[in-house]
Peroxidase
Amino acid sequence: MAFSSTFFVFSLFSVLALINANGQLLDDKFYKRTCPSLRGMVRSTMARAVKDEKRMGASILRLFFHDCFVNGCDASILLDDTPTFTGEKNAFPNRNSVRGFEVIDTIKSKVEAKCKGTVSCADILALAARDAVVLLGGPSWKVELGRRDSRTASQSAANSQLPPFFVDLPVLISMFAAKGLDARDMTALSGAHTIGLAGCGTFQRRVTNESNIDPQFASLRQSTCRISNSRAPLDDGSEESFDNGFYRNLVARRGLLHSDQELFNGGSQDSLVKKYSENQKEFENDFVAAMIKMGRIDPLTGNEGEIRLNCGVVN
């Protein structure tokens, strides 16, 4: 069978995308021999956590996103502050909003009991994020593994590299491009907001001062914010199910965050948002591809970093 040069180049790029600077390869079978029960331990713990609180699925997915966007998928977001560095947990985009650390710690304890010093916190977080999506009705995918954990974290990097909720589309595109993710990846990954909640501080200005919003929806969310410390669903109507409702809301001008509605506001992503709103399968396919791509952002492999015994502290 003959293959076109385009196919060859694409295939070669796909392989090279998994390889870091040290020539190490991420592989979904990485722990097949060293910790064969890994996936079962992650899945059972996540199933319990999501059963107890469905919102936890969204929180774990967000934790993975916020980890990968700051110096790569290295579990740096899980590190507590130390006398030598200020970690990412209390950065502006994370403070009082990232959660689920105890779920990852529970998984890590189980894994250490079975496979001591073998599985990184970074890989546990990647698997847990995939399971969070599946447990809430979303698609599954093979999670590439073999990452190692960082020995440091950076609050300043978290403050500068995580996309804020108040920025416009060109800034969003630029911030995702800086991580090797194109505009389609960005639009698909934003669909993670089909699950979870947001605090009033992130959307109060939008629902009171912006014109590209359904008036009835704006009024509803203004009333939400009259109650102190209140939260609202990012996907109005199906915040506990991983579906394409987020995009249907954008088309109806019912996006909760300014940065979300920017995806459908007379700009370059309007047609893609419309397509996702009408075709859940296309959204899911693109979301999976973008999650795999995001999981390849600057992993530590080989002799880099370490395998933390406790996800919150370096060894």
About this structure: The beta strands are 197-199, 231-233.
